[in-house]
């Protein structure tokens, strides 16, 4: 029989009251992972910088590595963050934000110099190599590696090499634009499950702006709608 007049599960979690699970169900957490302001910012960084390592996330959020390790561990235990090991490094990405098949290429794009090179090309298609290197701070080896993966396309124009977004990048951007409504709903559902009241808007700048409420406090967060749209990193 459904309980009437009692406290709801979300409120009982907020008050620290244990919710007894149904038979065969996983034990309920008494802690809301994202009620912690620092952990919420860590989750935002993981969502926006998929397949980054702990130290990169630590620099982005401004949290010391031991504290970052703790918050990432809690998020992983709670199922909000997933991990993968690449070349001896542990990398992190938000559950439901990217497809497993894209982990490899997003890992390749995680280093800042590669992201900056792609961003410079997306903002100025046809940029010459010399201008690209100056704008992004990367080197020739980086742009050659990006071209080899189909992320950038290089076209010879007389004495110059000009760079454009590659077909591999364009294809994955199209795929994630199609998945964007579902991705937003998964994100909102994850926030709501943690006792946060999310209010979403799409300002059209490559991000969803989500206003989250926890108790009497409120904050607006920005989550990238397409992990392959590096023009607005």
Tell me what you see in this structure.
With 233 residues, the chain is of the alpha+beta class. The chain has 3 domains: 30 residues, no CATH class; 137 residues, Arc Repressor Mutant, subunit A, CATH 1.10.10.10; 55 residues, Winged helix-like DNA-binding domain superfamily/Winged helix DNA-binding domain (Arc Repressor Mutant, subunit A). Helices cover 44% and strands 21% of the residues. It contains 9 helices and 9 strands. The strands form 3 sheets. The chain has a 3-stranded antiparallel beta sheet. A 3-stranded antiparallel beta sheet has the order 4-6-5. Strands 7-8-9 form a 3-stranded antiparallel beta sheet. The radius of gyration is 21 Å and the shape is globular.
> Beta-strand level of the residues, as a percent range?
15-25%
Looking at the overall shape, the CATH architecture of the largest domain is Orthogonal Bundle
- Using only C-alpha atoms, the radius of gyration works out to 21 Å
What structural class results from the helix and strand content? alpha+beta
Uncertain runs? 1-28
Terminal CA distance reads 51 Å
How many helices? The count is: 9
CATH superfamily of the largest domain: Winged helix-like DNA-binding domain superfamily/Winged helix DNA-binding domain
Oligomer: single chain
Q: What's the rounded overall pLDDT mean? A: 85
């Amino acid at each position: 029989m459904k309980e009437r007049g009692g406290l709801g599960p979300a409120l009982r979690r907020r008050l620290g009251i244990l919710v007894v699970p149904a038979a065969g169900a996983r034990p309920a957490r008494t802690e809301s992972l994202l009620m912690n302001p620092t952990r919420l910012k860590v989750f935002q960084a993981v969502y926006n910088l998929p397949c980054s390592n702990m130290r990169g996330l630590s620099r982005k959020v401004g949290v010391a590595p031991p504290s970052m390790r703790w918050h990432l561990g809690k998020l992983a235990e709670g199922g909000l963050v997933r991990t993968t090991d690449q070349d001896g490094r542990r990398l992190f990405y938000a559950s439901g934000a990217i497809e497993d098949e894209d982990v490899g290429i997003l890992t390749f794009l995680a280093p800042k110099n590669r992201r900056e090179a792609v961003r410079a090309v997306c903002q100025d298609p046809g940029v010459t190599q010399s201008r690209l290197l100056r704008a992004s701070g990367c080197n020739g080896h980086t742009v050659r590696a990006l071209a080899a993966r189909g992320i950038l396309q290089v076209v010879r124009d007389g004495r110059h090499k000009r760079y454009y977004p590659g077909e591999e990048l364009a294809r994955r951007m199209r795929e994630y634009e199609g998945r964007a409504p579902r991705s937003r709903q998964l994100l909102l559902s994850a926030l709501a499950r943690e006792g946060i009241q999310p209010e979403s808007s799409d300002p059209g700048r490559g991000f969803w702006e989500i206003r989250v409420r926890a108790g009497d406090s409120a904050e607006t967060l920005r989550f990238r709608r397409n992990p392959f749209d590096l023009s607005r990193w």
